[in-house]
């Protein structure tokens, strides 16, 4: 199911100079803000939770997910270089699964790790806040990578759709319409984080069992469907 | 022996029919797929390579379907027309990756790089390569698993004459070895120099198939139109129309020229200068007025 050559090509494409700069910018911004906040306001659990929930989990993780998920396959389909993967006796679902693993790993490294560092800077992991949000970022990385990898497979405008989902649906609708919150990767991840923290600092609108099932179903379905789409991917000619 | 069979294949995109009920069999040796730009060659090659489903009909390789059948790529090598090819890798890394995807190692990659004579630049990034170098590395990636069928879409585009000759030699060798090699081109001379057999596609339809010489004769025997200016148009027209190689001459007074339709190309090209010399007429302009490839092809379709 996992092809090391496909993984190597995907890592190199994803961590190319320009994309690595974009991937690195947001985590650095989060850490810089955390340092400033800690210096100005001191260690405060509520501030730490607000910053990690509002900036790290609600904004940074989905954006990194969009860049890594769509970037793992979208550009290759756009420029046609995916033909070198498709013209090989390698099962298409293997290509998708491998790219998913790479997208998850990249999203985790560029979102969960900085979340942990920022959490320790903000309040030294008081009330398990840093660890709880890190777990949420890890869990969300898996689902985001799968959703955005599927978007990258089916649409040429995957980045736009991904950002609309991440920023408009999750951030805007999520705060206005309660129903939207149920269908939000962020809330599912928060349900897991709530369990980890055990306190009232991290809360979710979705119960843990529902969240776990939805996370698993969305990840598996998105990956399966992306594999199917790649099997019948059409490479239109130049004509 | 590898045979690619295209059986009553059509492909349409919305209301546009790109390929219209084509049936052909491509066997060992070098076959040229000839047609003007936009004729449907790339669509056809994409269907042969399993990257596009036919709307109707089937494409099979030795009886095996090509569409949605990954295992078929053990036998097929593909050189796509598009330029993009993991530009951030070196030539060697690219060919090694292609070898690995076939379950092969660096040794097979090195052999393929040697075949296309790209060892000297193998450690440079692909983004620094010229068009011809890219083409050769693409070729190496297609040859790495020793395929019995090689599909090349406009392989000579953008190559300089020396590179073109090298690639032609290589493809000829592949054909001599008994591989099935199919390449597309819109340039008659390329096909003439390389292909043993040609398939002509015009406006999505299969216009001609067979030995190149037969088709070439069809092409040269068609009525040719010329625009001729001379020191005495009327006298020249009178002398030319007496010969059976011309079927019609119009004296165009406003342009000050003759529009001549010749039915016997070979005979007319020797007749014109001879008649002019004998009559003491000076030829000022002799230019074919319908030599575009499209007119050649449309004649073929009608023939």
Automatic annotation (TrEMBL), chain A:
Native organism: Streptomyces lanatus
| Keywords of the record | Membrane, Transmembrane, Transmembrane helix
Organism domain of life? Bacteria
User: Which sequence ranges are marked TM in the entry?
Assistant: 20-41, 53-74, 95-122, 128-151, 158-180, 206-226
Q: What is this protein called?
A: ABC transporter permease
UniProtKB/TrEMBL annotation, chain B:
Q: Which InterPro entries would you find in this protein's record?
A: AAA+_ATPase, ABC_transporter-like_ATP-bd, ABC_transporter-like_CS, P-loop_NTPase
Statement: the UniProt record of this protein carries the keyword Lipoprotein: no
Q: Tell me what organism the protein belongs to.
A: Streptomyces lanatus
Coiled-coil residues: none
Q: Which family does it belong to?
A: Belongs to the ABC transporter superfamily.
**Protein keywords:** ATP-binding, Nucleotide-binding, Transport
> Matching Gene3D superfamilies, A to Z?
P-loop containing nucleotide triphosphate hydrolases (3.40.50.300)
The ABC transporter domain sits at 4-228
What are the GO MF terms of this UniProt record?
ATP binding
Instruction: State the name under which the record lists this protein.
Output: ABC transporter ATP-binding protein
